[in-house]
Amino acid sequence: MKLRIVVVGIPGVGKTTVVEKLKSVLEGSQLVTFGSVMLEEGMRLKWIRHRDELRRLPVEKQRMLQRMAASKISRMGRKVLLVDTHLFVRTKEGFWPGLPFDVVRKLRPTHLILVEASPDEILQRRMSDKTRYRDTATKEELQAELALARSFLTVSSTLTGAPMLIANNAQGKADELASSLAATIREAAG
User: Fold this and answer.
1) Which residue among 32, 35, 159, 168 is the one 20 to 30 A from 46 at the CA level?
2) In the structure, what pLDDT confidence band is assigned to residue 133 with cuts at 50, 70 and 90?
3) Which residue range forms the structural domain that includes residue 102?
């Protein structure tokens, strides 16, 4: 059975760290970052110069890049494909779904994993990450985003029939979390 595992989380939960560690412990798996595929397409079209400009594009252009990325990823054929993405993106127009119906349908996930962390941990991680241009947020806004992520995850699971798992990425525990998720994935693979 081929597994297409979509791993999501709000910025600062450590999702990318967890998914990279997960890839390293799952033999034969392939990791693809949805935003990187969107970035490649956006740069090819000369719409953007770096990743953090993606969320500032008009929603219409973002949706076009999403569909292009989903089509490209859907053709990847490893036994275990890990897709690192976001459930939603904060835009000037409001929260915009990272996995709208047409995109999640093209991806055809077999599993959905939401990585979470406490608002305090997220704030600390965002402030210490000098490689990204992150929007500022209060602890209350992060709590609302975490709740919103669970809602978006539930909708994605309902639309696809894929089981959903919520995983806490406590500070300093990413290796343990990746090992635990790998065991779950191995069991699903049979």
Assistant:
1) 32
2) low
3) 3-33+78-189
